[in-house]
Model the fold of this input.
Amino acid sequence: EVQLLESGGGLVQPGGSLRLSCAASGFTFSDYAMTWVRQAPGKGLEWVSAISGSGGIIYYGDSVKGRFTMSRDNSKNTFYLQMNSLRAEDTAIYYCAKDMESRPLTPDYWGQGTLVTVSS
Amino acid sequence: EIVLTQSPGTLSLSPGERATLSCRASQTVSSNYLAWYQQKPGQAPRLLIYGASSRATAIPDRFSGSGSGTDFTLTISRLEPEDFAVYYCQQYAMAPRTFGQGTKVEIK
Done:
């Protein structure tokens, strides 16, 4: 059974940093790309970032490019989202998700999400 | 960036009725790399359709996807009580991936 467990969310001040983690199990981790998607309170889904199975290909959404960094550690079955220079508009539930192939395509399994609140 | 526009914003229907949801792209979605997701309150999204028309694992056959190029449709043939939710389309043909704004299917 595919399981994805996010951690690292919480309250952070504007301009601060936070690192989200997503621990994966139930599949061969290095064979699949992984994705982060967020959802602001009461709003729709916003795609944030994706990384290939090998980690050699990484994509970012325009609103986070230059501030967020996605990475993965295939030896730990875990991937990460380092978020710097956080803004109020980054407040959202952040979902981690497993893609359908080793190259970034579209997610087929999702975690339950972790809440990030950016506020003073 | 490919902009996806979903219509209608809200669809009010009764159980047993047919639902037709539209997703229009600002430019051609190559290889029909278009997915549909369902989201219920307090839950993570669930993949329904990928490749515009392929059902994901364990998705009932009352859900079907169609379309190509810039116009795509999700059809729910007969609404069950558990189908009332928000539906999103997403393109994965080009980075950055993008979602539509969602269509809410509510009970009439």
